[in-house]
């Protein structure tokens, strides 16, 4: 009988959707290196208190966003002011759970205003719906669209993508045709909770398909490149954000610690693996994995890119949030030799992006401008696979909603990001078809 009750408790815990009721989001203002060190030390035990860093790294003069459960609010506040050198903070969100609940309700109640092809482009979607949408695109645009898969995830979900490819030959600037068409890879959802990134890939893919042969710029750029688009990279984590925990980030593989799951798929690549800005603690959100490429998802994408790097010249790993258009390296603050070539593309992208609604992006190399993060995706695509135009993009916003970007920002984010991307593609086209 006792066993039964215990089992019942465990099962009900496992099945419940994680509550963030009365959890607060704090923005910390770190002013010196001692404060950075203090938070770094704290971050190693934060999960024991259910405290979660929304910001990936800590640096002086950069805001650090952290979620705090109600039972830790007083003690964490005391901890921050425990020295004379008090760490200042603002409460950005009073009740994260209430924001999640309101968004769920709006998702159900608000009629979609954007219903082309029977798919609500202004809403977030489950993995099943996204995969059904890919099939729908292939049915609707059979001469342009096809599916591809890079295999199955740890929990045996398909890592399903959409390929866009026209039958026209690519051309040089003077109009002469070239034999081998270059290709582009974009993905979203490598971090499960960053829902705007799959939604943006979906919006952009649909615009390329539906405006082909209508809009001259889009028609031209669809003829110039083949597009491999993987809207949801971390399929298991993404499914988990819909069924169990809206703020889950990592994969869902087992680790050596029974209650801690998953590795950070953006710290798991075998280029300068776990050298800095990554954790060896399986309970950490930036856990690099037990070894490089411990995660089946990163292995499979790396194999696909490696097998197609005779054509793939451009990679984007879409994330949120912070509004950044970044290039390698992540593992060091140093810049690669081709930094200017890469970063000039970022500059073109953020200019065009900002011209749409005035949204401001910062660009630069990951390590110096933003944070050191080793074993990351674009260091590998650039450093190992030699994909020159490799970018990591952090989409909207700058922390007002963070990962919980409301659905009414999906279309504007898609529109401005598309404008940035079209400018970047024109820039890349000028270099690869010279
Ligand atoms: C794509 O087409 C739609 C209508 O089909 C139009 O409203 C939209 O402006 C077009 N987008 C671009 C970028 O040309
Ligand atoms: C393609 O990627 C593989 C890694 O998978 C790398 O070893 C190889 O050098 C790359 N080829 C080119 C032409 O860059
Ligand atoms: C990497 O790509 C550049 C530009 O496409 C090319 O010149 C170079 O030979 C490639 N390096 C390797 C190792 O394949
Ligand atoms: Zn991310």
Automatic annotation (TrEMBL):
Write the signal peptide boundaries: 1-16
Q: Name one GO molecular function term.
A: metallocarboxypeptidase activity
Cellular component, GO annotation: extracellular space
Active site annotated at which positions?
Answer: 394 (proton donor/acceptor)
Co-factor(s)? Zn(2+)
Which key words tag this protein in UniProt? Carboxypeptidase, Disulfide bond, Hydrolase, Metal-binding, Metalloprotease, Protease, Secreted, Signal, Virulence, Zinc, Zymogen
Return one Gene Ontology term, BP aspect: proteolysis
Q: Record keywords: Cytoplasm included?
A: no
Q: Which domain of life is it from?
A: Eukaryota
* Localization, UniProt: Secreted
Domain (Peptidase M14): residue spans on this chain: 123-428
Per the record, the major location class is secreted
Keyword field contains Zinc: yes
Protein task: Extracellular metalloprotease that contributes to pathogenicity.
Tell me its family: Belongs to the peptidase M14 family.
State what protein this is by name.
Answer: Peptidase M14 domain-containing protein
């Amino acid at each position: 009988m006792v066993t039964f009750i215990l089992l019942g408790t465990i099962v009900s815990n496992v099945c419940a959707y994680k509550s963030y009721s009365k959890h607060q989001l704090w923005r910390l203002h770190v002013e010196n290196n001692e404060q950075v060190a203090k938070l770094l030390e704290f971050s190693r035990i934060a999960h024991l208190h259910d405290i979660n860093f929304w910001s990936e790294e800590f640096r002086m003069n950069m805001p650090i966003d952290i979620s705090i459960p109600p039972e830790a609010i007083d003690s964490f506040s005391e901890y921050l002011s425990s020295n004379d050198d008090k760490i200042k903070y603002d409460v950005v969100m009073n009740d994260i759970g209430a924001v999640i609940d309101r968004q769920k309700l709006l998702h159900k109640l608000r009629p979609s205003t954007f219903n082309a092809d029977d798919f609500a482009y202004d809403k977030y979607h489950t993995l099943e719906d996204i995969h059904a949408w890919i099939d729908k695109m292939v049915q609707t645009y059979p001469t342009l669209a096809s599916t591809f898969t890079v295999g199955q995830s740890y929990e045996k979900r398909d890592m399903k993508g959409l390929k866009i490819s026209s039958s026209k030959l690519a051309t040089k600037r003077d109009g002469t045709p070239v034999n081998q068409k270059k290709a582009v890879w974009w993905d979203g959802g490598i971090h499960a909770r960053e829902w705007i990134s799959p939604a943006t890939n979906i919006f952009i893919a649909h615009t390329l398909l539906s405006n082909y042969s209508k809009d001259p710029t889009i028609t031209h750029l669809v003829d110039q490149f083949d597009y491999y688009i993987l809207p949801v990279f971390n399929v298991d984590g993404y499914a988990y954000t819909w069924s169990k925990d809206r703020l889950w980030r990592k994969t869902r593989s087992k680790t050596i610690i029974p209650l801690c799951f998953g590795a950070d798929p953006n710290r798991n690549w075998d280029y300068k693996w776990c050298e800095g800005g990554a954790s060896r603690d399986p309970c950490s959100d930036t856990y690099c994995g037990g070894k490089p490429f411990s995660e089946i998802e990163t292995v499979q994408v790396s194999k696909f890119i490696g097998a197609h790097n005779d054509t793939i010249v451009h990679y984007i790993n879409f994330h949120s949030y912070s509004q950044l258009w970044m290039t390698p390296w992540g593992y060091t603050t140093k810049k690669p030799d081709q930094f200017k070539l890469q970063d000039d593309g970022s500059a073109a992208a953020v200019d065009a992006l900002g011209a749409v609604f005035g949204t401001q992006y910062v660009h630069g190399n990951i390590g110096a401008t933003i944070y050191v993060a080793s074993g990351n995706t674009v260091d590998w695509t650039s450093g190992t696979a030699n994909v020159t135009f490799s970018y990591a993009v952090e989409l909207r916003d700058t922390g007002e909603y963070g990962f919980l970007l409301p659905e009414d920002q999906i279309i504007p984010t898609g529109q401005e990001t598309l404008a940035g991307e079209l400018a970047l593609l024109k820039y890349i086209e000028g270099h690869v078809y010279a």
